Amino acid sequence: MIRVERRDEVSIITVDRPERKGALNRALRLEMGELVEREALDPEVGGIVIAGTEGNFCAGGDVTEMGTGAHTLSSARALVQRSSQRIVRALYKADKPVVAAVDGAAAGFGWSIALSADHLVASPRARFSIAFSRIGLIPDGAAIFLLRERIGPHATMQLVSRATSLTLEDARSMGLVDEVHDGPDIVSHAVSVVRSFNAPSALAFSITKQLVRLSTSTLEDFLYAELLSVPQGMVSEEHKTAANALRARLGKGLA
């Protein structure tokens, strides 16, 4: 489930699905898209924290659904627009601070969610991976765009094409983690980070953030290009075959 709670002016959106390591099925991605957009647009919300539970952040898509839907190219595109793109767009373009509190694995689309935040704080047990190509998929949730913003096109190509997994130390050294929090309550720390962004002037932060985002002026073009490519992987036989093989290896634990 996706939980939303308020600590005064800060909205905490939590992926509470530890039995699946925070993996998001289709229904949860659609629900999260609605909730994130609502909180991002709410004038009573001064900032957002994205978190997981029980040592999990978000393991990306739920493998139990991968390759099983009767998608057409058109329906796959519609799903991408209404779920992963809606979530990332709302977080990335929010006119308020967004902080990701990564405790555990941020994988696939889960890493996109974390990278769409203004500040990524990680616990010592955080780890990161972008392994779409292993199951015949193209990264969604603007993963390529968000990685390129932080580390440039060549390093992004290396990570994505090789389906790379990173330790916390590797991710931090590359500039993919902004801060490590070695404390008992990473969410409370993330709330304090949100407030620190707003402390000098919430309005100044909002305007500055939008100007920084507009300095590239390519998100919408990128999302459109992603929309032309991601669904092709979703409906491909290569993806279905690879997803079935992965489920077989994982066994009954995911049933």
Describe, in short, the structure shown.
By secondary structure, the protein is of the alpha/beta class. Helices cover 48% and strands 15% of the residues.
Task: Please mark out the parts with pLDDT under 50 across 5 or more consecutive residues, or reply none.
Answer: none
Q: Using DSSP, what is the number of strands?
A: 9
Percentage of residues assigned to helices: 40-55%
Name the CATH superfamily classification.
2-enoyl-CoA Hydratase, Chain A, domain 1
Oligomer: single chain
CATH-derived architecture: Alpha-Beta Complex
Largest sheet: number of strands, sense, barrel closure: 6 strands, mixed
Shape: globular
Report the portion of residues in β strands: 5-15%
With strands numbered from the N-terminus, the spatial order across the biggest sheet is 1-2-3-4-6-9
Helix count? 11
Protein described:
There is one protein chain. The chain has 255 residues and is of the alpha/beta class. The protein has a single domain (2-185, 199-254), classed as 2-enoyl-CoA Hydratase, Chain A, domain 1, CATH 3.90.226. 48% of the residues lie in helices and 15% in strands. The protein has 11 helices and 9 strands. It has helices spanning 26-41, 73-82, 84-93, 109-115, 143-151, 153-161, 168-173, 186-198, 202-214, 219-234, 237-250, and strands at 2-7, 10-15, 47-51, 98-102, 105-107, 119-122, 127-129, 165-167, 179-180. It has a 6-stranded mixed β-sheet with strand order 1-2-3-4-6-9, with helices on both faces. The chain has a 3-stranded mixed β-sheet with strand order 5-7-8. It starts with a strand and ends in a 5-residue tail after the last helix. The relative contact order is 0.16. The model has no long low-confidence stretch (mean pLDDT 89).
